[in-house]
Amino acid sequence: MGSLRTQLSFSEYSSTTLLSGSTDGLVNVFNTAIGDEDDALLQVANHGASIHHAGFAASTFSNSRSSADMPDAFLYALSHDETMSIYPRIDSDSGKEDMNEAEYDAGGEETANFGDLRQKLHCDYVVDILPTPNNLILAAGSQREQHLDLVPLARSPEWRLQSEHLVRLVAAHGGDIVRSVHIDAKRSVVYTGGEDGLVKAWRLDGDEHSEAPTLVPESNSGPPAKQKKRKDKRYRPY
């Protein structure tokens, strides 16, 4: 049985640059303007495990020296066994001919290998990796403790998990797994969908400079409960 595609993503900066991830552990980058598949293949990154999520990381927050030539300077890959790595993009102008076989197969040298994120984030599962204008956000959930954490991942100059700035969705979807997360950065709203069949919206409320903000869960039945005023930063759903 052949491998299955698990991820498709176009570059925000190029309508012809397509990334795909699959259960064979490969993350491929194609130029869709080229008809021949072999010629259209620009880069291969071998993550070594079935791909859950993969995408582009823009150099608007990567401090890349080649940002003028390649806005999407990095690729990220998250496997179904919760391991994550970040790979540098290969400049297609230099051509595959300038790389040896090992460099081509690896998609270049790994920029960062975080291993099993469950150990580093103290979570049970990773929902997704979400690009924002300033960094990447890792959404990691815990069924045992019933919360969802949003953890920034930024490069300054090395890629680092900024756990000290995590945002926590208290109770999240209870003991049910969170399957989808979307961040509306302009409105400071986080949307979540879980196996409990609910879609929830969470909004920032309070001091934006708190180190460890917490998201307050919504009431699932009856009239919404009044929130007590707090001095620290809090999020509340609406």
In brief, what are we looking at here?
The protein has 238 residues and is mostly beta strands. It has three helices and 18 strands.
Q: How does this model look, in words?
A:
By secondary structure, the protein is mainly β. It is 6% helix and 45% strand. It is built from 3 helices and 18 strands. Strands 9, 10, 11, 12, 13, 14, 15, 16, 17 and 18 form a 10-stranded mixed sheet that branches. It has a 4-stranded antiparallel sheet with strand order 1-2-3-4. A 4-stranded antiparallel sheet has the order 5-6-7-8. The protein is globular. The relative contact order is 0.10.
Task: Give me some keywords for this one.
45% strand; 238 residues; four-stranded antiparallel beta sheet
Give me the count of strands: 18
Order of helices and strands: EEEHEEEEHEHEEEEEEEEEE
> Helix/strand/pairing class, anyone?
mainly beta
**C-alpha geometry:** globular
Main sheet makeup: 10 strands, mixed
**Using only CA atoms, what is the Rg?**
19 Å
Percentage of residues in helical conformation? under 10%
Q: Give the distance, in angstroms, between the N- and C-terminal Cα atoms.
A: 46 Å
Strand content: over 45%
Give the overall pLDDT as a whole number. Answer: 76
Low-confidence stretches: 62-69, 93-107, 206-235
Number of helical elements: 3
